[in-house]
Specification:
flat; mainly alpha; two-stranded antiparallel ribbon
């Protein structure tokens, strides 16, 4: 029996030796592990042509699992406030340690040979990535300089507007010209005299005052038409019962009952109970409406389905006589 071995992909112990790597379960786990890493490797391979540089955020600390090396690898490469996307993964894939671990992983797990090149980065591609990273850093610095210049221009504009506002507040007000003031005073006096003269003249728009109307004049009293009470009926002001509380004579004389009576309800309830019972039960077809005398009930019990009880009594007597006769014949001794 082969010694026990531990498979890191299947996460179980097996005793079949090297035959485990050819099993269907192991190959399925191997394929799933490589497919999880393959999209990230393809995205990193695209970044070798044009590196992307961004400002650092905490999300750039993500890591990915490399099944070939059996360790976690930083996905991005960060330094200070800058981050190069996919830089950490490309650096790991281009390292000689990863290449050795990949060869050993492919040999031990019997993976497809054509897929091994997809998980390796050649030194030429990594050198191209370094050049594009330098260009990306220069482009990022230029963009940052432009942003800083725009912010500085905005700050200067705000500062200039603030200084102009302060200067306009602190400047002394201009002294008015005496000649201009005298002319303005004369014009003001002329205007006042014109307004006063026009106010003394009668206005054609004045309307005569409206006469005050007094509705309670003593010369026009209201006419009293008398009390409007219906004799014998009264109203709510005289203490009579309101009309909406008086019962109608038709409804008070005839007590109409709404719905079935209690006896009818009990009968209907019994019928509903009988409907739930099986129709072929004993006594289901018995006629309860038939009239019988007081002495119809015998001193014994017997089950019947239809007919009168006295019929079963005669049948019982006939059967009892037959049984007695049979027992008497059995007890009679045999004479030889």
């Amino acid at each position: 029996m082969a010694p026990a071995q531990r498979c890191p992909l299947c996460r179980q112990t097996f005793f079949c030796g090297r035959g485990h790597v050819y099993s269907r379960k192991h190959q399925r786990q191997l394929k799933a592990a490589l497919e999880r890493l393959l999209p990230q490797v393809e995205a990193a391979r695209k970044a070798t042509r044009a590196a992307q540089v961004e400002r650092y955020v905490p999300e750039h600390e993500r890591r990915c699992w490399c099944p070939c090396c059996g360790c976690e690898v930083r996905k991005h490469l960060s330094h200070g406030d800058l981050t190069v996307l996919h830089g950490g993964l490309l650096e790991h894939l281009a390292s000689p340690e990863h290449k050795k671990a990949t060869n050993r992983f492919w040999w031990e797990n019997k993976a497809e040979f054509q897929m091994k090149e997809k998980f390796l980065i050649s030194p030429q591609d990594y050198a191209r990535f370094k050049k594009s990273m330098v260009k990306g850093l220069d482009t990022y610095e230029e963009k940052e300089d432009e942003v800083i210049k725009e912010m500085a221009a905005q700050i200067r504009e705000v500062e200039q507007s603030r200084q102009e506002l302060v200067r306009s507040v602190l400047e002394p007000q201009a002294v008015p010209d005496p000649e201009e003031g005298s002319s303005a005073l004369g014009s003001w006096k002329g205007t006042n005299s014109l307004v006063a003269s026009t106010s003394q003249q009668p206005s054609y728009l004045d309307l005569p005052p409206a006469p005050a109307l007094d509705w309670m004049e003593t010369g026009q009293p209201l006419t009293f038409i008398g009390h409007q009470d219906t004799p014998g009926i009264g109203n709510i002001h005289s203490g009579a019962t309101p009309p909406w509380m008086v019962q109608d004579e038709e409804h008070s004389s005839v007590n109409q009952q709404i719905g079935p009576s209690y006896e009818e309800f009990i009968k209907e309830k019994e019928k509903q109970k009988l409907k739930k019972l099986p129709p072929d039960r004993v006594g289901a077809n018995f006629d309860h409406s038939s009239s019988t005398s007081v002495g119809w009930l015998p001193s014994f019990g017997r089950v019947w389905n239809n007919g009168r009880r006295w019929q079963s009594r005669h049948q019982f007597k006939t059967e009892a006589a037959a049984r007695n006769k049979q027992s008497h014949k059995e007890k009679k001794p045999i004479v030889s």
